[in-house]
Amino acid sequence: MDAVADGAVATDSRTKINGAMESADLSLRVATPDDAAELLRVIRAAFSARRPVDPPADALSDTVEDIARALSEGTGVLVEADGEIVAGLLIDIEGDTATLRRVSVLPEASGQGVAREMVTAALTVAADLGASRARLVAREEFPELIRWWGEHGFVVLGPASKGLWLGRDLP
Length: 171
Fold this sequence. Notes:
By secondary structure, the chain is of the alpha+beta class.
């Protein structure tokens, strides 16, 4: 998988998602600040569908301006189905480390491989931007997410203010 100059992310496989979106072909692309409002819609839907945690996820208080700024200062990856954004995440690059944030999939697209495709694309984009490592914070209240990240090569690095830092080397 290679990131391409026009913002699309090429992928070597097409993914179908089931359920209400059964016939939707997925496309992945790099996010722009113009995508902030739609990405925020996906972030809020995804984080609102999770079990409540205390303190609540910072993502639930994000504004369109916060997301636009994050996309201007860093980047992001989106997944679209039939032209609608169904998943997305933010990527902050600092030195040789990419931090994945706001990893979000609409509840109706969850469990269909969308997150796997998106994270694979995001790691490629991060490597293309010069990162050699990726990291993220996972809440300890969601052991199933920590397991999911582990299945995708991430290991626990240590404690974070609201969870655990997970990380992995990039190819």
